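Per reviewer request, we include the raw input and output of the structure prediction for the construct analysed in the revised manuscript.
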Amino acid sequence: MNKINLIFGFFLLAHSNNVLSQVILNNYELDSITITSPKYEFNSKEFQKIKKRELEHAPIKNIDNVLFSKLNVSIQKSQSGSGSPNVRGMEASRLQLIFNGISLNNCITRSGHSQNLKYIDYFNINDVYTSSSNSVGFGSGIMNSAIYMNSAPIRKSDSLNSSFFQEFSSALNSSKMNLSSVYRFGKFDAFTSISINDYGLIKAGKNRAHGYDDWGDLPHMFENERQRYTQNHSVYLTQRISKNISDFSIANIDLYSSNFSRLNRIDKLNDLKEGVPKFEKWYYGPQNYFLSKLSLLNYKSYILSDKFEITAAYQKLNESRHKKKYADSFQSNRYEDLDVVDSKMDFKKNFTKSTLNYGISNRVEILNSKANLTDSNCNAFYNSTRYPDGGSYVVDNNIYAQIQYKINDFFSLTLGGGLNDYLISSEFNDTSIINLGYKKLELNNLSIIKNFSLNYAKSNLVINFKLFDGFRNPNVDDMTKIFSKDDKNVVVPNNNLSPEKVSNYEIATTYITNKFELSFNSYLSLINNAISREFSQINNQDSILYDGEIMRVQMNKNIDNITIYGFEIFTKSLFANNYTMDNKVIFTAGLKSNNDPLAHIAPIQIKNNFKKKIGNSYIALSHTYYGKKDNEDFDLSGIDNLDEATIDGIPSVNFFDVSYFNQINKNIIINFSIENIFDIHHKFFSSAIVSNGRNYVISLQKKF
């Protein structure tokens, strides 16, 4: 027991100061979901989900890969090992990522592509799903969908139960390791985990079935048929503790730490100027992320609740951007230091024919931004910051209530409403680069949100109609950022932004038998006051000097009304002799008010998975069709990365994968798979990196 306590103390210390993870990084150097929180209790037929077993059996242990193959999610790739998810045309700041009830979105989550998904260790996820059912509960940020990731409750154990996992991948030149343990010390149950991911240079496919001989093949970006600059390393540390305070209450302490080596920005390293590479360096990081959460879950009935959860959480994020042009003598460095504090109370009360969920939450975010220029001797000089150098803070308060009422044996009704109060404040100390005419930016918004759904369930048929609001408050990134994506245009602050608001309409139909399931979802989202970039002026000038270049001035403004619509078809079939098949068709379309194409609209996707179970093993064959996206269907603001496409856009592609899973005994599991069997060359929509070619993946899990 002393050894166990020593292990626990060691990991706890590592979480608090990131010592262990930093040492490791330096050595690399360069069927229904069980949801405990009152807020998350939805009808399981309202959303698509990935269960624990599917996560364990996945051919390659990447959450973005699994989301893409299993759910209604498209993934943009900017780096190896992680991606930016897109659901129903919503991405980055318009798509909430929620881990164990805590939003990963923050005041500097940008509108382009966001890699925040990488902060969560794959081996800490018990289930993951997309849902549009809780816009009132989370306030700002859920426009039409969110991605929810949840950890499993800690398994009670009087002894040490451990698991070791190792994975190798050929085309990604990657390795993954996880070591986790469940144990008891005193009256506490604990879970400890460490994961180490190492990604190398990506080997691209050789079969250019698309017919474009030079697409994605810049000579300075490839070395021995592998794409350069895609290597990165990450370390994840987890310590979770649970204690039964009484027969009806549980206290939990969760500590998560993720640390990343430098992540090269591939799209900028792809840039050429007069036929030669423009940038010598352009990278993020190293990045450090820390999340701590304290929660109390109570199941005892009181006058006002039958279940409640009180949560306090703290997030710490350090990120940075570094770039150096070949023609420059100085490297530009910009640093962000963000602290986020969440406090929330969620309650559930059951009545004879109804259930009431209600709660209140508060979030405070504090941002500090720094910058410098460094020469070859590491001497530091002045540089403008990305966000206000005097600091920024955000206060976000939300209150909600939602009632589910059973009308009769077939119909049920859900009504909900919420009130959100939002304050943002930023100070500009230095106005030498850009004189905005003000030194302090403040914005205060009060928003009301409501939802309505009618559910019909009889025998094998479930029909759900939803009408719900969504909104997104402008964040620090929207309002105060000074940056250039293409060295032609520079975005400057705007102190006159309002929340984006959306009205959503959805019909979901599900038909289920013992051997067949069919779901058809259709939706329409109407966004008002959408924030978009527009050419503008500052101090009566339409161009300014920024980062050594004369650039056109742009501002984020509430200038757009947006229409997004689409449908999703899901089928699952069980045949004789343990054959199963599931199929998905995902279609999304989006237009601005002037009928111009909307950014973030992925092409049609068709996903087919076939599985044959043989005892404790199975073999699976997967097919993915990713549709064509023509040039004229790209948004021209730059977000869609048209310059990464062919002269005709993004061609369609078919991928085939095969995998073999074998549970040799209760303690040993092996998995072997071949991704992209036909070695197809491709770049997904909006992605900077080339997709991997034929990829051999082998993994071993040992429990002891």
